[in-house]
Amino acid sequence: MEFNYTLDNGVIVSPGKKVCAGSLKIQGEKIVPSGGAVTINLQGKSCVYPSLINTHDHLQGNYRPPVGPKKGTYYLTWLPWDKDLKASDTFKERSRLDREDLYALSGYKCLFSGVTTVNDHFPQKLNREILPTLPIRAFLEYGLAHECSSYDLHWGDGIEIEHQRATENKWPFITHLCEGFDNEAMHGVDALEKIKILDNHCLLVHCIALSDADIKKIARAGASVSWCGFSNMFMFNTTAKVRKMIKAGVNVTIGTDSSATGSANLLAEIKYDRQLYRTMYGEDLSAKKMFEMITINAARAFWMQDRIGTLETGMLGDILVLKGRNDDPYENLVNASMDDIELLVMAGAPLYGEMRFLDIFGGNLPAGYSVITVKGRPMFVKGDPAGLYANIRQKIGFNKVLDYMPFDSASTADCA
Asked: pTM for the whole thing?
């Protein structure tokens, strides 16, 4: 379907631009300067943002409840957590589901939090067939290593080959780094330098054990960092030196990690991370800065800044429309909940929204979409998350509740 519509009379919020009242026009997959055969009037009550970008997730692992260390203890590295996970009731329950079920849940975890772009930190040989089936963009164009240590899981074709592939193709090279406090974890930057792959293609995840010297090296190299505050505190009772990274000029982004240790979704993560920053430093991390971390900073980390992360003309139409509950549009985003989403669009195509936005489709619910009810509002959505939820509950054997699914599996509505 060729889309051609205008979102009119909204508060337009884009990185690097002054917030203004105005309109946003879509033709095909992209934002265009003029046109719009169909106009949706937002009545000055909605804020329009680039859709959100989650720089770190494990899409096979987003099952709840989380698994962590025994009360009063914390891990030294990720390895003992992996053993605890596989011995847990959560893992036993999760094992009743197919990989396709788990990935589908993760797609909706993203969608219902305003995320349209995410990295699945697994090797492509495991996810290349399934990622294109998700309702959001879980891209395949990346090089990766599990991490740089002797207990690396040896994902991909080897760290140097994966990095070379990333640089040749202008992709990100993504790896866990300094996730823990043993000798190896604390010398992750040295290990990358030794094999000469610390550069601006690197997206380094967690980084809780970086020294001040490491931070300066990462900044000089132009590497990016994915901050996963909730998961870090849950597993290790500490997190990255975010204030020093920002002051050093590091391109800091935000990731959820898997919901087996992390927050429910990106909207929950940004609230937690902001409060964590306040607790750590006794000062605020501005809502505008956080907005940049989950839009343009993340797009740069993924080497996608020419396509996503802003609402500039010529960019893909990746759009998030939220209820305007706060006069400051940045605070409005950082304090938003799943219930505040009015519309989510990826490459011009609406994925999820209030029924008034069906005019974009000509007034009728298209094939491949369904209707759910969220806090009393009927909402159209790509795919059938209610059917997925019901099927998962049947396989598990009880009425499982997942906090990133904002509806009950019986909550459906007829399209008016």
From this structure: 0.96
